[in-house]
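For practice. Any example?
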Amino acid sequence: MKRINQLGVILAAAGLLAAGAAELAARTKKGDKYFAEGRRYQLEEKWDLALEAYEKALGEDPADAAYQMAVRRTRFQAGQMHVRAGKKLREEGKLEEALEQFQKAYIIDPSSTIAEQELRTTYRMIRQREREKEKKEKGKEAEPEARVLTPIERILEETRKRLAALQPPPRLKPISRQLNTLKISNQPVKVLYETVGKVAGINVVFDPEFQDPGKRLSVDLSNTTLEEALRYLAVLTKTYWKPLSENTIFVTNDNVTKRRDYEEQVVKVFYLKNITKVQELQEIATAVRSVTDIRRLFTYNSQNAILVRGEADKVALAEKLIHDLDKPLSEVVVDVIVMEANRTRTRELASSIISGGKPGLSLPITFAPRLALPLPGNGGDGGNGDGGGSTGGSIPLGRLGQLGWNDWRVTLPGMLLQALMTDRTTRILQRPQVRAADGQKASLRLGDRIPFATGSFQPGVGAVGVSPLVSTQFQYADVGVNVDLTPKIHGEDEVSLHIEIEISAVRERIDVGGIQQPIIGQRKITEDIRVKDGEVTLLGGLTQDQRTRTKSGVPGLGDIPIIKWLGFSSEGRERNEGELLIALIPHIVRRPEISEINLRPVAAGSDQVVRVRYAPIEEEEEEPAGKQLEPGAAAPAGAPTPPPAEAPKPAEAKPEPPEAGVAVRFVPAAVETRRGETFTVSLVIQNATDVYNAPVKFQFDPKLLRMTGIAQGNLLSADGKQVIFTRNILNDAGTASIVLNRLPGAGGVSGSGALVSLTFQALAPGRTEVTVPELTIRDSEMRPLAAAPPKLVVSIQE
């Protein structure tokens, strides 16, 4: 009976183990199914579907490391896919669609910094476009709404505004830039400048220390622009002028002291995009400093930036030089084709006597005395009395008469009949590709690294703790196909190549001082060539034909034509044929980006004064926002029309902050339920101001609760406008995330209401909490609104 009970326990345990194994196998099989589906989508680059399949697989087995890595990898790829799609849409001017793609990228991969940056940039572009539209419709730009900022955000915002308010050097914007007909006769310098200023609608201010040359001049300034006329007057009267504002210029005498006192200084930072080495940045900085004669020019290597402070014309010339020099390096892809063909044919014919394993006649005769023959050492009577004797086949001379034919032995030869032929063909085709930038060395190593000894030494004096063994030093040789090339691209379709190609292999190994050293055979080519794009160039070839004939047999008889095959001769023939050919095919994949602007010369002033000129830039005429002049009322001829004075605005009453800030809580805050029942709670926001975007992440205990649904609340859609709502529930991991976002241009909403409604199912009795580890509420400017994350307490009874 006891044995029966033990047998029952064993069978029950085995059944439980089998059931558990079956359940685990079924679960793993289901997860593998989703995993294979994700792999299929991944190969098709359908990253959204691949991520969905991998998340399903992870939901089946959250502890599987392969599923976790696949989800993380695919999440990144899916986010990058949406980022690329958003950039493409933004380049096409579809800002709303681009914003939606960036939002999807941020939802899929919240850790993506580029997605967040592009999201903010696109949103600012949309807001800027809306403000410009409002400006055109209303005649003035709508003022942004007041925001509640933290002290840190307020300081950052003030800094941003101050930086945005920094102005470049003033640029003239006259009423009339073209001077059609203007002739001035016999007038002093001041009158010349004032007359040009009145015609163009600008003010002229002279230096209090201005010294009039005292000459009266006549000029004809017909069909010229304002800048050309002022430049002409400056050269003619040896004066210097600069704009003080859009409608005012300052005139003084042209000398070193006045230029040092009044010439405008400009600070600018140039960020170079195509620098690959610090040396290139230093070379550009040196070239710009030498050509423009700018003393204050510094480099910032970590950002590939050049900081410049100097006169406006010198900085403009430096900008032109940097633009011309900051070019991406040209690139070339070289196909290296190594073709090798070897053929070995052997033929062995033999009908010969074999002696000792070798063809030919060899009859060794050995001395093998009989036992009955009395010899020293074999117990005969002919010894020397001491029982010893020679055992090396020597006998006393007196015994020679007793030797007979039976005391000698001979080894008879064998016979070899052989007819063998082998034919071996080897073809090798190696076609590596090497990509290199212009002037940059590229290396390719295909093969093995073989060690070889270079030397050894042994301590000369032995001591305690010193090894008496010999120390051998080794180095490694690259064996295989080794390619080193340095390209130089000329123009659009020609390339110069300095190329070194080495093809090597280990032929054999020899013993040197007890160490097996390799003998490496190599074929090396070093050449400098200039070829066209796509042109096939043969660098070198080697043709080898080696023939070997081996003959062995009985002398004399082995040379008779017919008799030699009756057992007296063997003959072997071997022929080795080899061909080696190396070819190069360059392909230019990036050509020099040299445009017409880079090749065009520019005027840079004189040796002492750098001066650049700009062609007239056509600008859109903007209608004045102020009040137009009434008929009959004319502005003074010498001064432009001043802007109308705005009436003082009444002080706007700033809205008082609410008594309580933005509050987020669960309604109800605590739930009591039973096992198997479902319940719904709402995430409510109170005292909201301009809520535009709300990504939220929930966390719960998957052993006690299961989230069955998430429904959108009524807060963000209170004004009837559409809301973008996305959700992701991972019950096995005990997490869920949502993102609510209003459409671009819709602005935010204010007030109180439900953000979302969550539905749970109780799985097991116990007490647990639903928390919000990530809660970010943003306004229409994508700035976060401070809010404390809430907590929901759930009590589950049996």
Notes: The first strand starts at residue 178 and ends at 179. The chain has a mean pLDDT of 80. The chain is about 25% helix and 40% strand.
